[in-house]
Amino acid sequence: MNILRIEQRGSRLNGAYGGEDLVDVFLRIKENDQLQFPITNDHIKAVILDMFTAGTETSSTTIIWALS
C-alpha cells in the first residue's frame, strides 16, 4: 500500500474531497480492529483488484455479446 496515501489520509478526510472513500474505510477498519479476523494491506489490495477486474470483465462480456 502506498505509504504516502496512508500518511495523508488524516488531513484529507475533512478537506476538499469531503469524506471517506473505499480505501479510507478499509484502512479505518484495519486500524480499529473492528472485524473478528485481522485485515492486512494484502486483503485491501485484493478487494480493490477484484472490483477493477469485475468491472472490466462485465463490460467486455457485454460488448462481445452485443457484437455476436
Automatic annotation (TrEMBL):
Signal peptide: none annotated. Keywords: Heme, Iron, Metal-binding, Monooxygenase, Oxidoreductase. Gene3D superfamilies: Cytochrome P450. One of its GO terms (molecular function) is heme binding. Belongs to the cytochrome P450 family. This is Cytochrome P450. It comes from Solanum bulbocastanum. The lineage of its organism: Eukaryota, Viridiplantae, Streptophyta, Embryophyta, Tracheophyta.
